[in-house]
Amino acid sequence: MIVLGSDHGGFELKEAIMKHLKEQGKEFIDVGCYNTDSVDYPIIAKKLCSKITSKEAEIGILCCGTGIGMSMVANKIRGIRAACCSDTFSARLTRMHNNANVLCLGGRVLGIGLALDLVDNFLNAEFEGGRHQRRVDMFED
Ligand code: RB5
């Protein structure tokens, strides 16, 4: 299961991603926000991460103005490996090498077309394990 969340700065991007996922027949949970009213991004980031740590979802996508605030909050939570990306290579490699489980995107940074490409690259990539697992274990511990 995929879980999505945004603040007001990432709301429109989250809407576009949800439409994109629906078109692909993918299921997701939306933890808000649900309109463009101002909301504090740490509340949404923590809500989304709790869906992953409780195992209701495996993968999360967080959108705020830059993607940075969301990634800072998410990375403070044990078991969350969040990557703020703005290029498709990083979005793919952070899954393959870092086993990232949350993608953070900037609604005020990225165009919709590029953002959807980042989402597809992230969701379609697989963790390679091996030496990368050893490295992930080194910081998860
Ligand atoms: C909200 O104005 C903005 O600060 C937030 O969306 C995000 O960019 C924080 O990192």
Shape: globular
Largest sheet: 5 strands, parallel
CATH class placement = Alpha Beta
CATH homologous superfamily title? Sugar-phosphate isomerase, RpiB/LacA/LacB
Distance between the termini: 25 Å
H/E topology pattern: EHEHEHEHEHH
Class of secondary structure makeup: alpha/beta
Q: Roughly what is the average pLDDT, rounded to an integer?
A: 98
The CATH topology comes to Ribose 5-phosphate Isomerase B, Chain: A
Fraction of residues in H or I helices:
40-55%
**Reading side by side through the largest sheet, how are the strands ordered?**
2-1-3-5-4
Bound ions, cofactors and other small molecules, one mention each: D-ribose
Q: For this entry, what is the oligomeric state of its chains?
A: single chain
Poorly predicted residue ranges: none
Q: Please state the CA-atom Rg, rounded to the nearest Å.
A: 14 Å
The total tally of domains equals 1
Beta-strand percentage?
15-25%
- Counted beta strands: 5
* Second-tier CATH architecture: 3-Layer(aba) Sandwich
Structure description:
This protein is of the alpha/beta class. The protein has a single domain, classed as Ribose 5-phosphate Isomerase B, Chain: A (3-Layer(aba) Sandwich). Helices cover 46% and strands 16% of the residues. It contains 6 helices and 5 strands, in the order βαβαβαβαβαα. It has helices at 11-23, 41-53, 68-74, 88-96, 112-124, 131-140, and strands at residues 2-6, 28-30, 59-64, 82-84, 102-106. It has a 5-stranded parallel β-sheet, with helices on both faces. Strand 1 (2-6), helix 1 and strand 2 (28-30) form a beta-alpha-beta unit. Helix 1 (11-23) crosses helix 5 (112-124). The longest helix has 13 residues, at 11-23. The two termini are 25 Å apart. The model has no long low-confidence stretch (mean pLDDT 98). D-ribose (RB5) is lined by residues 7, 9, 41, 64-66, 68-69.
